[in-house]
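Sequence design from tokenized structure. All designs in this work follow the same two-part layout: the structure record, then the generated sequence. An example of the structure record is given first.
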């Protein structure tokens, strides 16, 4: 098992009611888990989790997580 710290931003915070803005929470996953597996574990729908950063570096969903990683997940961003 590994433990990672996760932060959900903007509309994704609804998946963790009561969590403060920018507040992280711990998630335990099997060793070798990917970002895609983390997203499924959190119950996020695929398109909702658009931008993912691990330790402040943008990563794709196939990235294998390591113990202690800090994962930030953002929804699609719009604007003009």
């Amino acid at each position: 098992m590994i433990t990672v710290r996760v932060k959900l931003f903007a509309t994704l915070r609804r998946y963790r009611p009561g969590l403060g803005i920018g507040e992280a929470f711990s998630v335990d996953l099997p060793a070798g888990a990917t970002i895609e597996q983390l997203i499924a574990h959190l119950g996020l729908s695929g398109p909702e989790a658009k931008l993912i950063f691990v330790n402040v570096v943008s990563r794709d969903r196939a990235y294998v997580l390591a113990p202690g990683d800090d994962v930030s997940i953002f929804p699609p961003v719009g604007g003009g």
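The longest helix spans residues 35-42. We note this feature because it recurs in several other targets discussed in the main text.
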